[in-house]
Fold this sequence. Notes:
about 325 residues; alpha+beta
Amino acid sequence: MARKTGTANALLNVFRSIMKFINVNSSFNRIVIRPVIALAALSPLFADPFFFNTGDPDGKMATASRLSSPGIEIESADDFLLAQGVSLTEATFTGLIPTGASLGSINNVTVEIYRVFPQDSDVGRTSGPSNFSTDQVPTRVNSPSDVAFDTRDALAGNLTFTAGTLASSFTANNSVLNGINPKPNQTTGGEGSVTGQEVKVSVQFTTPLDLPADHYFFVPQVQLASGDFYWLSAPKPIVPPGTPSSPDLQSWIRNENLAPDWLRIGTDIVGGQPAPTFNATFSLTGILEEDNTVPDAGSTAELAEIAVLCLALVRRPVRNQNRL
Length: 324
């Protein structure tokens, strides 16, 4: 259940007070009035839903995002913005597994949440304003932070996942797997097209991710029995059926050799004049977390009006109630 807001708590208290005035032996009050009051008072207890979606794959880029076995760890990241706190309960992301591989070959899924640099980062190892470059990368501006803000892992038991096949064959025009290099060799142009089975991974956070209002990066990783998982790009800027967002940062990537730094997939690795920029395909679902505070003057006035109306209703004489 969502957290109760200050307004919801106040309404609940009003509801309890009103019920004291109701004659519970009255059939009319018991059958009609009490359920109406209950619904009116309890409805604010459930917070508004949250949903964010970057849209469908555009076929332009596929980037590896895997755990450290087999091979070295690779993290691909794309951003999302929260204007207020959210408790994330579900996520999806779309990518490629090897053609012909079974969905059962997905051994583990993790989701990491990063904040935007310079949060959770050692700024002292950078050049400082305005590029915040390091010995390894041209810039850390708008990158994910050095370390994750929070993590969920299927093997740890705080998320579950299912996977479904969207297409038996899907081709992305470019890819990044091995070409994640420190400067001055960061620009490789990418590693060319890659084809695989298009799958959507659906995640449920058995321990929700409670995130305050901030700017974040979403980092899914998939461990396969054999081969590599590639996360597919989405249109940038976001277009329907995606959820427009501003600012909308480009996707970043790193492997464990480059950490704690990150490279921009389009600007740094693919390069060009102008260099392309990419989003990644994912969605997030949760519930908005409102401040658990005392209602403001407007909310208090609304509560008073509800209380007066309800009290007037329950005190009104009920005629012929035995005929109900």
